[in-house]
Amino acid sequence: MSNMGARVARVFRNFNLENRAHREISKSKPRVAPRHPTESSVPQPDTAEDIHLKNNPLLSMLKDVYVDSKDPVPQGEPVAVVKQVKQETERRLLKFSLPGDPYGICDITDVPKGKLSIVEALTALNNHKRMPKTWTLEKLAQEFSLDKKDAKALTEFFIPFDVKIIPPKLEETKRIKAS
User: What are the backbone dihedrals phi and psi of residue 91, each rounded to the nearest 5 degrees, phi first?
Assistant: First the structure.
């Protein structure tokens, strides 16, 4: 049936095609916008030579320019900022890492103080969750070289995955039986 529809559509599409084409060709063309003069039509001086010539007034002004740059002297910076910059440069060895090289991240051997790797963060969160009296915020901060506020934020805002298996209700619940 679709073959028949295509034939009918082709007949209508090709009907009087030649006359329609001649009619479109014989229509008056729209007027073309006027052309503006380009750089090639306007005579230009030879710029290639001008580029390589020395301009003495400009050279003398350039010789008068002197630039001297120095880093500003830190005045009255808070001790916390200096301590933080120093702390970021210090590094510590990893406490925990993944066994083997499953994800290609085992080449990491140390991290900056105040930072945790993913494995260490999950280990710290898991230890705190399982034994909160043993793994207090102070112990986490001491063990992983963190600030106390960072350890508090870690345990407060990040929760490790918790898989909960919901057991089925009593046998009284309705179940679909195979028929």
Answer: -125, 160
